[in-house]
Amino acid sequence: MPERDLADLMASARAWAGRAPATPGDGAEVTIGYMSFAAYALPEEHEALRASVRQLAQDKIAPHAAEVDEEPRYPQEAHDALVRADLHAVHIPEEFGGPGADALAAVIVIEEVARACATSSLIPAVNKLGTVPLLLAGSPGLKERYLRPVARGEAMFSYALSEPEAGSDAAAMRTRAVRDGGNYILNGTKRWITNAGVSQFYTVMAVTDPAAGARGISAFVVERGDPGFTFGALEHKLGIRGSPTRELYFDNCVIPADRLVGAEGEGFRIALATLDHTRITIAAQALGIAQGALDFAAGYVRERRQFGRPVAEFQGVQFMLADMAMKVEAARQLTYAAAAKSDRAMAGEQVPDLTFISSACKCFASDVAMEVTTDAVQLLGGYGYTRDYPVERMMRDAKITQIYEGTNQIQRVVMARQLLK
What three-state secondary structure class fits 33? Predict the structure, then answer.
């Protein structure tokens, strides 16, 4: 499907998302125990979107994936292709010049790009992570100023929460923001920031009232080029090697006070609310990596012959493929159900189990991605262990999905707390 048709697909997907679910095949919810789930047979518009994104990923992104990983370098070809197709930030509302896609459409875009190249899938995923705080709590002026250039593809947005001594314990952050007349002055360090140096804008969490604990944390927009704002060296990573990961340094960094997101002291609440929505994008990334590995392994065992017949004819191999596919589809259903709940919450509805299901889909899908990519390497045997085939890269890429946006150990803590409330 031509790239120019994507806008029509987005509009159709939005129209479908606005309808009340009617039948189980159309996203009807069923309550089972603690959770209410949606049983998904995707509507035609979302399936058409998937086909179009998959074609774009195969044509424009997959051919560069190995090179992006090997060098490593930023996936500029993927960036340009996604911007041309208006797929780099599909979640931004139409009122700010974006496609206004629902969360399910955003999940499908990230999933299909990750199927070809996990590094490239971080372009739409991190744009969403960086901008959701503004969508949740930003002033109209702040949204207008920063969402439009992202929607146009002129800028990207990153998210800065973690610090050297504040990873899982994010509330222990030490970066300070002190009010000085009409400005704030920031001092401190942020670590593990995805697309750092490439993004023009950063949502940064900093302490404005040290005596108030988590309630003394505030959120700000910092621009690349602000005086006193610099970047550390590139991290040398196991996977997603083409996505630049750096530290952010704030040395008496002066920013205008109108770049405060929400009110003072609301930053940590905004950060946690953001993650309720964006953990789902990491599940989508994990899902795409797993699907890519499954597809490649299934194709390989059909062609590879041993003992005079295709490897796919051996029952042990068939059982492995069946288990891999079963887990991927279970992860997909959970992720799509979470996306539906994210949409309802962004629309202002109270969704009490959003925190649980977003943690659950991120945790489950990333565990599945690690299992499936490991099995894919095993199915290719010695070839799977070489860089001549993509499954070893997929296995390396899968690992980070169990770690960032909250380790899977933290996700289990979050889920247990929700269950025991």
Answer: coil
CB 247 within 8 A of CB 196: yes
Whether residue 4 is predicted with pLDDT greater than 50 in this model: the reply is no
Catalytic residue among 45, 247, 264, 405: 405
pTM for this one?
A: 0.92
DSSP assignment of 265-302 equals T-HHHHHHHHHHHHHHHHHHHHHHHHHHHHHHHHHHHH
Q: What is the DSSP letter of 311?
A: G
Provide the β-strand partners of residue 26.
Answer: 40
Cβ-contact 121, 110 below 8 angstroms: yes
The token pair at 105 is 């459409």
Cα(24)–Cα(331) distance, integer angstroms: 18
Distance separating alpha carbons of residues 244 and 238, to the nearest angstrom: 12
Q: Is 392 a catalytic residue?
A: no
As given in the structure block, the two tokens for residue 116 are 């070809």
**Residues 96-155: pLDDT tens digits?**
999 999 999 999 999 999 999 999 999 999 999 999 999 999 999 999 999 999 999 999
Q: What is the pLDDT of residue 22?
A: 30
Q: How many CB atoms lie within 10 A of CB 179?
A: 13
Please report which helix (H) or strand (E) contains residue 369, including its range. helix 354-380
Q: Which residues are CB-contacts of 321 (< 8 A; sequence separation ≥ 6)?
A: 294, 297, 298, 301, 312, 379
pLDDT computed for residue 117 by the predictor: 98
